Amino acid sequence: NKALDTLTLHKDPIRDIIIMLLASQDKEMLTSTEGIDAIREEAKEEISAFLESENESAEIIDVLFMSFLVE
Questions:
Q1: pLDDT confidence of residue 18
Q2: Per-residue DSSP letters for the chain?
Q3: Letter string b/e over residues 2-31, b meaning 16 or more CB atoms within 10 A of that residue's CB
Q4: Mean per-residue pLDDT, 25-47
């Protein structure tokens, strides 16, 4: 699957994008449903922009957070 190969190839920069995005959020954004939805959308846009800058054609449909801890 080309999309999976693309994401695997770029997993470290994608992980960095997500970590930096989460680190820039306040606790309210990270703990509310609306905030999580907004973060998902922003992550999708930032990952898509990164892949486009790398001349990759994978379409990001959604970003799923399996788990994360807010302290």
A1: 95
A2: -HHHHHHHHTHHHHHHHHHHHHHTS-HHHHHSHHHHHHHHHHHHHHHHHHHHHTT----------------
A3: eeeebbeebeeebeebbeebeeebeeebee
A4: 94
For residue 41, the tally of other CB atoms under 10 A from its CB is 12
Closest CA relative to residue 42, chosen from 25, 59, 26, 54: 25
Task: Check: pTM over 0.85? Answer yes or no.
Answer: yes
**Residue with structure tokens 């994008």?**
17
Assign 23 a pLDDT band (cuts: 50, 70, 90).
very high
Cα gap 18→45, rounded to integer Å: 11
